[in-house]
Amino acid sequence: MDDWLSLVELYEYKVADLAAGREPRGGVRSILQLRETLLGAPLESATLKRFRSTDRILRSIRRGVTPASAAAMDLDLTQVPSATPPRDMDLESIAPPPPPQDEEALILRQLAEAAWRAGLEDEVHTLASRYRRESGYVTLRALHALSSNLEAHAADPQGATDLNLSRFTLHMPVPSENDPLVSPHDPEVARAIVNTLLEQVLEFDALFPRLALPPRERLAYLRRAAMLIADRPFQGRPRSGKGPTAAELKLALESAQREVMGAAAKQELLGRLQAQYDAARAREQQENQALTREQAQIRQSFIAFFELLRQLLPESLGGSAPEPAVPEGVLFARHPQRRLERVSDPMFPRLALRLTQPGSATVGGIHLSWAPQPGGRRWNLEVGGAEYGLSRQLNVPLEGHEVRAYQVEDYLLIDVVESQQQGVGDLLRLARATAVLLEPGEHYLNLRLARGAVAMLRDGRVDPASLGPESARKYGNAPLDQLCSFARKGAESLLGRYGRLPETELRRAFDEVARLLGESAAPRRAAYLFERLREAASIGPRNATSLGSNVVDGNVVENAQQVALLAYRGEPLTVMVGGRALTLRADSEGEVTVVLPGLPPQAVGDILIYPMPDSSAVIARQGLRLAVGMHPYLH
Questions:
Q1: Phi and psi (nearest 5°) for 457?
Q2: Cβ distance 490 to 432 under 8 Å?
Q3: Whole-model pTM above 0.70?
Q4: Confidence of residue 240 (pLDDT cuts 50, 70, 90)
Q5: Contact call for residues 362 and 343 (beta carbons, < 8 A)
Q6: With 0-12 CB in 10 A as exposed, 13-18 as middle and 19+ as buried, what is 411?
Q7: Average of pLDDT values for 10-36?
């Protein structure tokens, strides 16, 4: 029995008196004192639930209503006309119980911050992708200049303590669009530019350790630096032209006019210099107008970027977003006030737990389980049948979702978030399309037709001579991984066009290429290829049907409609595909490979088409999840 149960019962009686309009024994002060004692008490789960229920009733009295939840306490408040508290009760002081501040609370805050940082990284990817689509990459170039100048200012002894930016100078101008040292068109470079500046915001103390600027003022400080750059963004940028400037040519004209030389030669020299001067002046006027427009774009880009940052960052860092959400309830928590005994809502996308014993739960509709590894020092998280070793952060991609797990000491925070990454069903769809192209029949006629269709759709014409049977010799001699990669590019190109172009245009392209090739099997193959690719393109992504097949129970795939969904656990795994045994196992470097008896192993990657005598094994892999199907050849 809980030692605190008697005090909770006493609290219930006192609150019942108050709700009935009676003065509790000991007065209102006795309720507040008892409440304060219970708030800090290590109550067991059932006792804590009773205390919280009673406490909600007490707080509801502040609003002048009789709480319906009083019935749950077996308190007869239904006959009370009103629940007006005594006049001397300071109800303003009664607030929901604050979360306890202890070591567990500190760990939960660390977990919340880790999850928040992961969400911020998602925003970095989104912003970088958006800025890469901008004409001229203005924002990326401006942000690169800002982060570079901040680093230079922080490294300068005068800048390290420059609280009002009075000594801020432009060490590096905003680079030009074609600057080879920046390459903002590169996805990795774009993400690095945005991420670097974000790190300077979040790790401001590391950048300016002597500035002692309060966290709420740091975003404004960086914005002021950005505006100083926007005032003179091109200072120090090399000239774009290689010839003399208009000013230099004007001086040359004046000098030539003073020269003593033959009249004809002088006239010819002055004419050339005047023409050069006029051209240089016109060019510089155009450049100045373009720079003026670009300067306005840079300023606007800075304004828009810092407004986005303000919306993303919490108030403690100068933004307007809420602080990272710290879990209030924790499965198997140490502190009874936040301890959960079970997951009440299996669709809720977040769960915090203490790793004390093996268990399972449904989070965001996804069943998860956890258990210690042999030896007990580390833990595994099982998702979709696959086990993953827990670490500081673990991301497990699924169909349309991603499971994210963050670990600090023996506490785990699990989030299920929506994801735009390709799921295993999307990869299987691509693998099936690639398998169609890789059929070896009729001298790789499917692949040759696909090449021709891509050229026809792209250029409006095709060279039949380059697609003849003799061109297929290189396919038969190519290593499997290279051939698969080549066919995959063709499949990706065609599947993308199925989503953008009318089917009649696609069908016409295949038929026209078949006619130009003039091979007897070409029309039938073209119709077959068109239909198989249309099937692959029409399967809806990111749902259960995106596998486009019947998921079998077990490891046996007997026809093209079936697929086996498997989890690779590090041990060799055998799958029967079309009556043949394929073994999935890790090689000496840990890479997952496929082996058929008597044949060399092939690395799976994210997709693999493994040829067999009359069909291909079709394999898609996402992390430790595998989808295995088969593709029979057309005869």
A1: -70, -30
A2: no
A3: no
A4: low
A5: yes
A6: buried
A7: 80
